[in-house]
Write a structure and sequence with these properties.
Immunoglobulin-like, 4 helices, 299 residues, mainly beta, five-stranded mixed sheet, 3 domains
Length: 299
């Protein structure tokens, strides 16, 4: 049994039973990352590896390590998957030992020719610089690359309440003949740690194991910021942390449309319990001006 949901660890003891393996994507007090646009979740890695290897333990360990880089709260808590294989409802080393060697489908394994992310970078600390060229090297495999992308979790990311984390912005990378892929990220305007989760997929739909890059910004941007918003030029995605509609506040994602001028379409909005910014964008008088000199200045 595999359960992927926010707070799914709270069901571990209830689901534990003889001759049953229970795999849980997040602990009892944690949100789950189900970022659709970036295909970033426990299941996106677990099921393809299970189909390849026929084993339960190795895909569980691989994906546990991958999602352990997902920050799921404001206190730098990381998503933790759980396992029960001995029916006591408690995850420990005994569960791993009991599951070791257990496999499905007569233990048939298929060749693993999925792409491999060998390195990501740059591994740097910023002192006020706003833009960095992010890079990833993908090892050459049997099938050509179809897509390489990175999801972004800024230090001022507004975590949702009691719903899965599904709104992480995504940047598409461009690759050369040596499968080195790059994209410029121009929004290091907040102090703290920015997390970049890199993904790759080949023409057959096979996914690489994701890698995470952490870049620390030591200084806030000196520019005046009236609206707490982030624009990603590569994808045309605009994320606004706080939009006020009458007395209610929302975080909103908008998509730049292929139309004259700066026209955005609302993708989704999540209701917030309270105001999160000193200068929320007001729905009825909401204007954003993109500064052409920087592509992403805000007023």
């Amino acid at each position: 049994m595999v359960l992927e949901a926010c707070y799914s660890g709270s069901f571990l003891q209830e689901l534990a039973a003889e001759n049953r393996v229970v795999i849980i994507s997040s602990d009892s007090d944690q949100l789950a990352v189900l970022a659709g646009a970036s295909n970033q979740s426990f299941s996106h890695g677990f099921w393809p590896r299970l189909a390849k290897t026929g084993q339960l333990l190795d895909p569980f360990i691989d994906d546990s390590l991958a999602i352990a880089n997902n920050t799921v709260d404001n206190y730098n808590g990381f998503q933790q998957s759980l396992l029960d294989a001995d029916s006591n409802g408690v995850y420990n080393c005994q569960d791993r030992s009991q599951l070791s060697g257990f496999c499905l489908g007569q233990c048939k394994q298929f060749a693993d020719d999925a792409p491999v992310i060998s390195s990501v970078g740059p591994e740097i600390t910023l002192n006020g610089e706003l833009e960095v060229a992010l890079g990833v090297q993908v090892s050459e495999r049997l099938n050509p690359l179809e897509r390489v992308w990175v999801s972004v979790q800024r230090p001022d990311y507004a975590f949702p309440e009691d719903v899965a984390i599904s709104d992480l912005p995504v940047l598409e990378l461009s690759c050369n003949a040596d499968q080195f892929c790059q994209v410029n990220y121009p929004n290091f305007d907040r102090s703290g740690d920015s997390r970049f989760h890199f993904h790759a997929e080949d023409s057959q739909g096979q996914r690489a194991r994701s890698k995470t890059l952490l870049i620390e910004q030591t200084q806030d941007s000196g520019e005046s910021t009236r609206v707490n918003a982030v624009y990603l030029p590569g994808s045309g995605l605009l994320t606004i942390d706080d939009v006020q509609v009458q007395d209610q506040h929302y975080s909103a994602n908008l998509q730049l449309l292929d139309a004259p001028g700066l026209v955005f379409k609302l993708l989704d909005a999540q209701e917030m319990s309270q105001q999160s910014h000193d200068f929320p964008a007001l729905y009825d008088i909401f204007f954003i001006r993109i500064n052409p000199s920087r592509c992403c200045g805000w007023e």
